Amino acid sequence: MARVLICEPYDDISALLELVVRRLGHEPVAHTSAWSLDEIDAAVIEPGESTGLLLARRLRGRDVPMLFTSIYPADTLALDLAPAAYLVKPFPLYMLERALGEALATASAPAGRPAALAV
Fold this sequence. Notes:
There is one protein chain. By secondary structure, the chain is α/β, with parallel strands linked by helices. It has a single domain (3-108), classed as Rossmann fold (3-Layer(aba) Sandwich), CATH 3.40.50.2300. It contains four helices and five strands; from the N terminus they run βαββαβαβα. It has helices at residues 11-23, 50-60, 76-79, 93-108; strands at 3-7, 27-30, 42-45, 66-70, 85-88. A five-stranded parallel beta sheet has the order 2-1-3-4-5, sandwiched between helices. Strand 3 (42-45), helix 2 and strand 4 (66-70) form a beta-alpha-beta unit. The longest helix is centred in the last third of the chain and has 16 residues, at 93-108. The protein is globular.
C-alpha cells in the first residue's frame, strides 16, 4: 500500500481523487495533514496554483512520482518538473488509475529494470 498525497484546492475533486486512491488499495493523504514528505510514495497535484508548484518542486527533489491534474493544458513550468502524467480535467477516472499504477510501479522497480506497464 502506497501513501498518495493529494494536493487539490477544490474539496469535491479532492474527495473524488481520494476515493480513486482508496479503491486502488492505497492511502490518500491530504496536503493539509501532518505527514512528512519523506513518508509519501506518490502525489496527485493541481499545479495551477503556486501551492501545487511549490509542493511539486519539493517532491521532485525527493524523486517522488507526481501526477498533475488541471483544467489547463500543460505549460513549461509544470512540464519542467517531469510529472509521471499530466491529465487535463475532465478526464476518465481509469486514466488516473492507470497513470498512478504505472507511476508507482516505475518508482518501485529495481534500478536498471523497467516496470511492466499496463496496456
